[in-house]
Amino acid sequence: MVTYRGFGGTLGRESAFSSMASTINPWHESAFLGQSEDFRLLIKRNCSISPAGLFRVFALLALATFGIGAGFAVAGAWLILPFAGLEVLALGLAFLLNGRHAGDYERIELERGRLTVEVAEGPRSARYAMDARAARVAVSREAEGYGAPRVHLRGAHGSVELGRYLDAERRVELAAELTRRLRI
Fold first, then answer.
1. Chain segment 134-157, per-residue pLDDT in tens
2. Owning domain of residue 93
3. CATH at 140
4. First and final CA of the chain: distance in angstroms?
5. Are 6 and 26 a contacting pair, CB within 8 Å?
6. Is residue 121 located within the same domain as residue 162?
7. For the chain, what is the domain count?
8. Which residues, 6+ apart, have CB-to-CB distance to 67 below 8 Å?
9. pTM for the full predicted model
10. Could you read off the pLDDT of 100-125 as tens digits, one per residue?
11. Which end of the chain is more exposed for a tag (fewer CB within 10 A), N or C?
12. Are residue 179 and residue 121 in the same domain, yes or no?
């Protein structure tokens, strides 16, 4: 799998021929290598820390908080400990909510005239399948934060948003390439 990293997400191209991962600068390489009709594309969040690393950071912060609280308790301010516990609980809840979406992704596959999109967000996942000849790519310029474009893939039975984890430039690139691939 070749991985392309940019602001707001990771754009990767899966390859059946390569099981090794490498990083390529997205400013110099196109995310859509090869010109065949069939392709697979994996778009996922840019997750800069592993779950184990996140747990270590949380454990160190909790240890520091309880250590400071214990120091104040020894000095006579024992009411600090319940508040330290609430702080660690709130921090743990924030880390848990963040971690639920660390593995979110969008997988787009075009094979033999069949377009399949798989979207995973937190504990939910959905799979959309449609005929590639009937699918259309639409880009809306609605204001989303900084006016980033939104890419929608429309088929006979509905629509699905793509590229949520990409910056504005990569979304436009995704829409252009998908439009070109669907015309082949």
1. 888 888 876 545 667 888 888 878
2. 51-100
3. 2.30.29
4. 24
5. yes
6. yes
7. 2
8. none
9. 0.63
10. 888 889 999 988 888 899 999 888 99
11. C
12. yes
